[in-house]
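Each lists sequence, tokenised fold; shown next:
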Amino acid sequence: YAEYNPEKAKRLLQEIGLKKDKQGWYLRPDGKKLTFTLISKHPAKFDEAELVANQWRDIGINANAQLISGELYGVRVNANLADTAVWYGDISSTDMTFPVFYPNVASGGWGNACWPKWYDKWFGTAKVEKEYLPIPEKVKKLREWYLEVICTADDDKRAQLCEKILQSQAENLWIIGTVGYAPHPVIFNKHLHNYHENRLWIWDVTWASDVDPEQLFFDNANERK
């Protein structure tokens, strides 16, 4: 699914019946301009949001990236008020760390997908006071796998279930990704030793803990005091 193909993107939009206005922007079925706002709370990730917005604008979607505070981001995401929310794919790098809370099939959590609000009612403890649309079987199965993963003590079974969840993401695109396992250069002082050259830099291992920082040392530590 991951390919940069603007012409194909335009064709897909046209195939679902969207028309353009005189300025070249796609219109929704109700005649209003098709507009998306991509929100991000992380300055380091905002460049990616701007890149995506610019690519969407190039094909005729009126998209804009917006950098907002963490407090406002949390309110909008948890209330399902964001058109598109940008977050990095943490807690999903390996079957050793994944999944801790993703995909918790319900709205809530900055790193979770904002599923429809009735999923909260269905899967949560709140009493369902009215009839909601049925949850797709694929989503029910996703929830079942997740609950099995966080309960099983069998490492092999956990890895298999995690693979099923990731395969479901690949097939259904519950979350639209950009790029994974991008290199992240780190500069070490020449006097620093016992570091690992190729390790993970990701929230799953709280960034630098994967290099075992408690074992790092300087060869001239006494001279530096």
